[in-house]
Amino acid sequence: MADRQGRLSATAELFGDALRQILAHPLRSLLTLSGIVFGAASLVSLTSIAVGMKEMAYRDLESIGFPRSIQFADRGPRSDATRAVDLRHPGLRISDAEAVAAMPGVASVHPRVWGGNLLATGPAGRRNIPVEGIAEGFLTLRNFEVVAGREFRALDIAHAARVAVVGEETARDLFGAVSPIGRAITLDGTRMTVIGVIAPQRFEMAPIDFSWVSRRVYVPWTHLQRYYRPPSRIDGMLVTAVAGGDVGEMLRRADLLVRQRHLGATDYELENEAADVLSDLAMADSILGGWNSVMYAISVVTILVGGIGLFSVLLISVRERVREIGIMKALGADDGHIRSLFLAESLTLAALGAVGGIGAGMGLIVLTTWIGAQFGKVFTIPLHWPGVAFALGFALVVGLLFGWYPARRAARLDPVEAMAG
Amino acid sequence: MPALIEARGLAKTYRLGRVDVPALRGVDVDVQPGEFVAIVGPSGSGKSTLMHLLGCLDTPTAGRYQLDGEDVSALAGKRLAQVRNRKVGFVFQTFNLMPRLTIEENVALPLKYRGGVPRKERKRRAVAGLEHLGLGHRIGHRPEELSGGERQRVAIARALVGEPAILMADEPTGNLDSKAGGEVMRTFEALHAAGHTVILVTHDPLVAERAERIIQIADGQVVA
Hints:
Shape of chain A: elongated
Radius of gyration of chain B: 17 Å
Order of helices and strands of chain A: HHEHHEEHEHEHEEEHEHEHHHHH
Number of helices of chain B: 7
Number of helices of chain A: 14
Strand order of the largest sheet of chain A: 2-3-8-5-7-6
Helix content of chain B: 25-40%
Strand order of the largest sheet of chain B: 6-7-8-3-9-10
Distance between the termini of chain B: 24 Å
Strand content of chain A: 15-25%
Oligomer: heterodimer
Largest sheet of chain A: 6 strands, mixed, barrel
Distance between the termini of chain A: 41 Å
């Protein structure tokens, strides 16, 4: 125990001496380390940024509920039907939505009815505007920003209230500068009161364009259903799984259920938004993986080049200290002492380089965040720890590798010749 | 009392290219504990080589060397370094102090290489050694801040800190003016009087005269 403590303190002393030696030549040490610093900095910053961007894209998608939702869409009779059953076309119904909503693992069902382009008239103008009938909670689910007023409530839907939520741009087209909240528009001849204005949510990273949200009018789906569709028919529904639920499993069971209800007819399309998004993410992941391998490779080369700098500076250091080495040997230092002295110097230099590089990499991350902020983006880039660990570990390996020969050379000096200089 | 140093037929031949250059051609030396011996001879006589062999800085090409009862002529590497560390304390003409270390750090070096001596203990012994040689007021200074005589006394303190069997000095007054040189010589005499074994290598007959016994070397052999 005491021996181990002794060894520990001897090691600490060794590295303390090495640090002193390095600090005696600050400029030289700094220049030597530039390769390792650059390598570590690029590795840490670029892998962190790449991983951070991916996570931001993922959060964007999560924010609109994509990874948890599937979509049913009425398709109409199949033109390529080969089975009698496919000629039947019961269509998606309100009762289908209710049945799916009753399934375990389903968090919510949002029936949808398309109104198509309807003539909308406001005090400041008239436009042909795409109109969509939706359920309460849909806008929240998609994370659209309600910039004024409110979104639909359950009562609006239940009573097929004549209320509308309009996109930002449409609101300007129809009302000009006046606030539309509480005012009326005429939609295909029906007076609807505007209760809310929405804007598309802002994405930091995901390449999704939701700007059309600004040019749309939303109304309760029950309203469109009542006036534009046969009894009890809907055009589609969005189904979300409970948090942590298996979306694929929910899709299979919902599909089975609806097909049974339609007596086997596949008169609807089923889209697994989650799977689509996840496969996009998987692709992004593999691109990211490739990018990261390239970054690792470049950093390995840079750090190795840094190692050559380390090597030459250690040889210079050995040459400069030949006399000192001779004296140390005369005082009873053996080859092992001298070797560990220079290896400690090499390792300390490499570690300093790695730490400096990691610090510089963190600086670059902060800079990237700042640049993002100048463009109105909120970047959150956490440090990519595997990159940090690799940079430090590899720098130490390089320190050991490139320090070995100079250390050996120093250790093998003959004391008498060395003292003669 | 057994001899501290017992060397028989000690020889060292250097190889320069294809030519063998004999530096020492079979030397017998005996030194008793507590002796003060001067090895004298002109430059190139082999006296430095003899000191290197006796101080275990180098290994003989022929001959047998017993130091403090141990045959060291066949030792090399780590073992020889250990013997050097424990049995021999060196003082050099050019002081050979580490410029970046304080004087007490310099003095503590041999204990550092010995291993197993805690840092505090090393410092305590170094400070005690320096105080003993009248350098207590210089603690914390670096060698360049000291006079030549003081530096050489630091070197002596360093040679003594490990309590070696022999103190070896190679032209210890060679870089000093006569006053500082005299002081250093008085220090050696005092150490001798205190029971230390001192071997002094010099070409200066006035310095050699201060020793009890003189071994004269010429052309790699003992002549007197």
